[in-house]
Amino acid sequence: MQNAICKFEKLLHENSEYLKSLDKESLENKVPEKWSRKEILGHLVDSSIHNLVRFTEINYLPKPYNHRPYKQNDLVAINQYQSMDMEELIQLWYSINSQIIRLFKSVDEKALDYEIILSDGSMINLDFLMKDYVEHLEHHINQIKKEHDFR
């Protein structure tokens, strides 16, 4: 888990600065039926909100924990990330993920084995979910960094 935490911290710190360096046109450029770079970051905000709840709830709700999916495209549209102030969006993304890092650092070793039932009925554990969250973050950061986008 320590490697995932280090990777997570590096992704968060390095990319909060990188995102600030991007120009508005590059961030808001849209291809039909795809998210802009700004909307990808908004999706990462939605993901962080939902996962913060998951990483917290699993500690006190009955086990196995039931993983609830969310409507990614609907949330990106409803939250209007495309028109949001970029500095505010970066700050929101950074703040929520900073809290998730605090949770990751304090998770009890035994909690990493807590079972989670996915919507398709398959089973994972908290260790997998936490590491997968970092991989998901890295995947979308890499999309933002690509010259040709997206999703």
TrEMBL record:
<feature type="domain" description="DinB-like">
    <location>
        <begin position="8"/>
        <end position="144"/>
    </location>
</feature>
<dbReference type="InterPro" id="IPR024775">
    <property type="entry name" value="DinB-like"/>
</dbReference>
<protein>
    <submittedName>
        <fullName>DinB family protein</fullName>
    </submittedName>
</protein>
<dbReference type="InterPro" id="IPR034660">
    <property type="entry name" value="DinB/YfiT-like"/>
</dbReference>
<dbReference type="Pfam" id="PF12867">
    <property type="entry name" value="DinB_2"/>
</dbReference>
